[in-house]
Amino acid sequence: MRIPLSAPDISESEINAVVEVLRSPRLSLGPKLEEFERDAADYVGAKHAVAVNSGTSGLHLCVRALGLKAGDEVITTPFSFIASANVLLYENAIPVFVEIDSKTLNIDANKIEAAITPHTRAIMVVHVFGRPSPMREIVEIANRYNLKIIEDACEAIGAESEDKKVGNIGDAGVFAFYPNKQITTGEGGMIVTNDDEIAKSAKMLRNQGRDADSEWFEHVALGYNYRLSDINCAIGIEQLKRLDSILKQRETAARKYNTQLAKNPHFILPEIDLPNGKISWFVYVVRLNENFTRAQRDSIVNEMRKSGIGCGRYFAPIHLQPFYAETFGYKSGDFSVAEHAAERVIALPFFNRITDAQIDEVCATLEKLIEPSGAF
Ligand SMILES: Cc1ncc(COP(=O)(O)O)c(C=O)c1O
After folding, report:
1. By alpha-carbon position, which residue is closest to atom 14 of ligand 1?
2. I need a surface site. Which of 29, 204, 206, 372 has the fewest CB within 10 A?
3. Which residue out of 54, 56, 106 has the highest number of ligand 1 atoms within 8 Å of its CB and is therefore the one to mutate?
4. Domains defined for the chain, CATH in brackets
């Protein structure tokens, strides 16, 4: 793609930090791991951070560390990346989807209570596209029903709900560092928590079930290799130093997009200034209004790609993914707000160093394609 959908932003400092690790004898479980964890914990104000090799493995370890088991119900959103529900299935827990708020695209907190049953144990909150979910309401419900909260903050490092950093509001939160994220380690993830037991359990489980006092070949629980190498951690340390300036750059790009597209009645644009929180801009997603069909959206995306502009259909709802529809019998119409949004979203090129000229070109191409689409 001439203008990619996303692009990592790696500077000389990341490259030098990687070289430094490669010249050392400690490529894994070394000093960079500890440093990255300390920096991440400090960034969100958490007591502990546990680095892992992906956001998915981080979420899975939270499910394990909280002791969620077969038959336990966990309330979550159908409008997310599939991993937020899959990690529940890994432990045979049951994702219970709750409809989203059409404005924010996050779980509709007003609909959570109706989904609670005697089997409900937790809420998996997702901060979709880096926009904070309404944590005050969610925490209040969780406290009332004695539910745990896992925050899937994989798309939301640096976002704030009221004045609190997301990830550090529930029992445990997870950030992800795939190259399309605000900051990257190539692959990677980070659990943050204030709970000593969750942190201890996550550290043990990521390292094949070895606890801190175990001999190398002693395994006290069924664990995994979810370790993140010191090479990845070295990249993360440097990226984290730049996170606040990266978030400013991304917000500036989002504002530019909104200004360019504001006059066009065909779009529903993302909100930027929230009354009670702060977005960490992961992707810039516009929605076509209700006069457009999914087929028209798809053809616009295809045409954009043909002209060299990367676009994404974020997200196809989880309940309609073939595996979920076949296994659980979900069908179209089960979560109509999520489906309606999913059929009309277009993620536009969005990365730290996107230029004004690139944004101009993306908007001009999109607006030109919309007119002859036959919707009006
Ligand atoms: C909402 C959400 N949850 C979980 C993940 C999983 O993260 P990873 O790809 O690092 O496993 C992602 C990654 O894209 C995500 O967007």
Report:
1. 81
2. 372
3. 56
4. 12-241 (3.40.640.10), 245-373 (3.90.1150.10)
- Decide: 58 in ligand 1 pocket, CB within 6 A: no
145 CB within 6 A, ligand 1: no
Indicate if the pLDDT at residue 376 is higher than 50.
Answer: no
Ligand 1 and 343: CB distance under 6 A: no
Residue bearing the CA closest to ligand 1, atom 7: 55
* 373 has pLDDT over 70: no
SS3 45: coil
Closest ligand 1 atom number to CA of residue 83: 4
Spacing, Cα 317 to ligand 1 middle (Å): 14
Residues contacting 264, CB < 8 A, separation 6+: 367, 370
C-alpha separations of 362 from 3, 24, 266, 354 in Å: 8, 44, 15, 11
Q: Which residues pair with 175 in a beta bridge?
A: 190
pLDDT at 292: 95
Nearest to 338 by CA among 320, 326, 311, 312: 320
Q: CA angle 304-307-312, nearest 5°?
A: 30
Q: What is the pLDDT of residues 185-234, one digit of tens each?
A: 999 999 999 999 999 999 999 999 998 887 888 999 999 999 999 999 99
Angle at 341 between CA 114 and CA 154, to 5 degrees: 75
Eight-state DSSP code of residue 104:
T
Pocket test for ligand 1, best of 77, 129, 178, 318 (most atoms within 8 A of CB): 178
How far is C-alpha 1 from the chain's CA centre? 24
